[in-house]
Write a structure and sequence with these properties.
Elements (H helix, E strand, L loop, with lengths): L23 E3 L3 E3 L3 E2 L4 E9 L5 E6 L4 H29 L6 H21 L9 E4 L2 E4 L4 E8 L6 E10 L6 E10 L2 E4 L21 E4 L3
Parallel strand pairs: 2-10, 3-10
Antiparallel strand pairs: 1-4, 4-8, 5-7, 5-9, 6-8, 9-10, 11-12
Helix pairs in contact: 1-2
């Protein structure tokens, strides 16, 4: 709507707007993988549904918010600064007579600047030794879906639980996905329930063969 300005008069107008999340969701909020023996693996899937008319980009993350990622990056960068200062102090202690120490300190500073840049540029995609998600990032066309595979590889005989987060463009908050799996240890069973040795003479030696069957493992 055009506005009419009158010289010498103050003109005020109010602007209002609202933002909404794009219609993108997971087909479920948890994935329970079948019980799996140690050293083996099992696969399950989850689907990202894009019911909007825009192309969406997704990334699987280990943290629920961007703020948590930024805090972790700050801690990493702080450690790098401490390491750089310690190395610079040590270098100055033993290189007082070195005429090239200025150049070497400059090189040291450049190395740590590159390391900090790598930390800041890290997308912090989800990575885990037990649960693997593929693809860990990608795009979904309008009114399409993407099938995501979840691979479970237990290392111990216990229940594993982990929450990952799907960061989707056009969505204010990351979508949580609960991953659950149980690792099983090898199992052994005798092929008979009773072994009848019978009468045995004193100090005599007898040998018997016992058969068993195992499940699980490689």
């Amino acid at each position: 709507t055009p506005l009419c300005f009158v010289p010498g008069e103050d003109t005020h107008t109010s602007l209002h707007g609202s933002a909404v999340n794009v219609h993108i969701r997971l087909d479920r909020n948890s994935v329970t993988v079948e019980k799996t023996y140690i050293t083996l693996s099992n696969l399950s899937t989850v689907t990202i549904l894009n019911h909007s008319n825009v192309t969406a980009r997704f990334q699987w993350k280990a943290f629920a918010t961007q703020e948590e990622e930024d805090q972790l990056k700050q801690r990493f960068c702080h450690r790098l600064c401490q390491q750089e200062n310690a190395q610079a102090d040590n270098f100055l202690d033993w290189s007082r007579a070195d005429t090239t120490r200025g150049e070497r300190l400059s090189l040291l500073s450049h190395i740590y600047q590159n390391e900090r840049a790598k930390v800041q540029g890290d997308p912090m995609l989800f990575f885990d030794d037990i649960f693997t998600i593929k693809p860990v990032e990608g795009e979904i066309w309008p009114n399409f879906s993407a099938e995501i595979s979840v691979t479970f590889r237990p290392q111990e005989a216990r229940v594993y639980k982990h929450t990952v987060y799907c960061d989707i463009s056009g969505h204010e908050t990351r979508l949580p996905l609960r991953l659950i799996g149980e690792g099983l240890g090898p199992r052994l069973r005798f092929l008979f329930e009773e072994l009848d040795i019978g009468k045995v003479s004193v100090i005599s030696l007898h040998r018997y063969k016992v058969s068993s069957r195992g499940w699980g493992g490689s």
